[in-house]
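Late entry, written up from scratch paper. The run itself happened at the end of the previous shift, but nothing got recorded in the book at the time, so transcribing now.
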Amino acid sequence: MGGRGKSLSSNYKQIDIKNYKYRLEIEDIMHNADIAREDLNAINRDLSETSLFRKCYCCNEYTIPINSFHKKCNICGWIDDDYQNINFNSHDGPNELSLNESKIKFWGRGN
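Output as recorded:
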């Protein structure tokens, strides 16, 4: 009735300064958490584009899935092979051309 005290009516409760400050702190924390989450998602998006793949030895693009075996690059067609990747002139492996020959065919020059 008199408007004094913690509540004006049964439907509305007044908030005191201490609770108001807590509410502002919580809102600030939630806002900062949202910003941090967005930043982390952006970083993860950027990382995931390259971190799930490794470079193709022929075209140098990130097209070969990590922990894969004999995967074919969808850009240059090089089949990732541990032996042929380090033996540039070898024909012993899944690729018909050596790595140097494949680079010449793709880039116009060899290693």
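Helices lie at 17-51, 82-86, 99-107.
(Scratch paper discarded after transcription.)
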